[in-house]
């Protein structure tokens, strides 16, 4: 089905739109563009800043801060390179930020004296957390800029899951440094809580302030096509990964708390009090974290439910629009078909009128306007055809030339109107007494020509004699009196005796007519 214009008007809330910023591939550094040097310089400066801050963080002791929140004691570690790496992941893609995070974390591991193998593995912890962040925002239709309450809650939730995922590096650190269960719990808690708070409190405002400018710079230098819709399997995988991260956080919280409590020695009241406080701190931390997660997930679930409802409504509206559009097109097609039928009928009427006019024109071209007999032009067209037909059938054909006797005297004495009436009366006799195969022609003035196919000289003479008797019996009335006992002379030529073509027959018939005139008129002559 074709694309509907209604689809272009579907509106999706900004906080639930997919991020239109796709990852910028590293291959852009191979392009011949001045912007690649700007990008490479920015990345190298970010790397230098990340390495310097990693070293400062290690030697300045920006880790293991004990923070008291109400009655709870938290351990928080600050790691500034993570902020730089996170911004690169969200603005340009995972490869750009993960490389910064890996190199800066590797520097910390090296300066801390971790063995090379453990250092290489330990450096993957922060890139692992950034991978979660990148996958979620790449395959879930939520913007990473926390410009609205739903987007901010989702950002906080994903930052927490990312921090828990990256905190797996704390176990490598604890194992390599042979820390106790209490120490491992403190390192783990400080890692994820520090990463979580640092990402939320530093990356959030920076994303709000700098994202429009960064994306404009990107779009000017590397315009991108619209991102494709995420595959359903990726969305499901990200959701499962996020759920596993939350469940892993809960399990590690209680497991490390149990290990820490078990590491407490002594049966004094103070020792038991410390155990109880440790359980309380662990339980309260889990409680507050789960409260935030539950609120965020409920709110996001509500928003996604609203979005799904809106999508279904828009889909229904789109289907209704397509239906109405199809019905309208069908109605227009029916109207066009009806209009076409009407035009066809009108065209048929016009064609019939044209054909009738053509026939009228043809009749006017072939007939004499006064007597309505055929004219001389028709004779020249029809006679050769009749001669050819007679030749094929082996039949004879007679051609009769008739001239009215004393017709000039009629015009002079009675007027031309009486002369026209005389001509019409003779034409009427032709129409009533000739056969269907015969035809009469007004040859010119008071001369007429009869073509009698399949007729010999005797038959033609008998036909002419009958016409003479009928013509003599006619009484033609006019304003100046009446005429009767009208006479005409005739000359007959026969095919093939007197000629085989039109010219020969007309010449012979004319000669016979001249003989009839010379013999005193009112008679019939034919050539021997």
Helices, strands, pairings?
Elements: H1 34-60, E1 65-69, E2 72-76, H2 81-92, H3 94-111, H4 116-122, H5 125-139, H6 149-166, H7 169-176, H8 181-221, H9 232-263, H10 269-366, H11 376-393, E3 397-404, H12 407-414, H13 416-433, E4 439-444, E5 447-453, H14 457-472, E6 475-478, E7 481-484, E8 488-495, H15 502-518, E9 524-526
Parallel strand pairs: 8-9
Antiparallel strand pairs: 1-2, 3-5, 3-8, 4-5, 6-7
How many helices in DSSP terms?
15
Estimate percent helicity: 55-70%
**What general outline do the C-alpha atoms trace?**
rod-shaped
- The structure class reads alpha+beta
What are the secondary-structure elements, in order, as H or E? Answer: HEEHHHHHHHHHHEHHEEHEEEHE
Strand content: 5-15%
Overview of the structural elements:
It is built from 15 helices and nine strands. The protein is rod-shaped and about 170 Å long. It has helices at residues 34-60, 81-92, 94-111, 116-122, 125-139, 149-166, 169-176, 181-221, 232-263, 269-366, 376-393, 407-414, 416-433, 457-472, 502-518, and strands spanning 65-69, 72-76, 397-404, 439-444, 447-453, 475-478, 481-484, 488-495, 524-526. Helix 8 runs antiparallel to helix 9 and helix 12 (407-414) crosses helix 13. The strands form three sheets. The chain has a five-stranded mixed β-sheet, with helices on both faces. With 528 residues, the chain is of the alpha+beta class. The longest helix is centred in the middle third of the chain and has 98 residues, at 269-366.
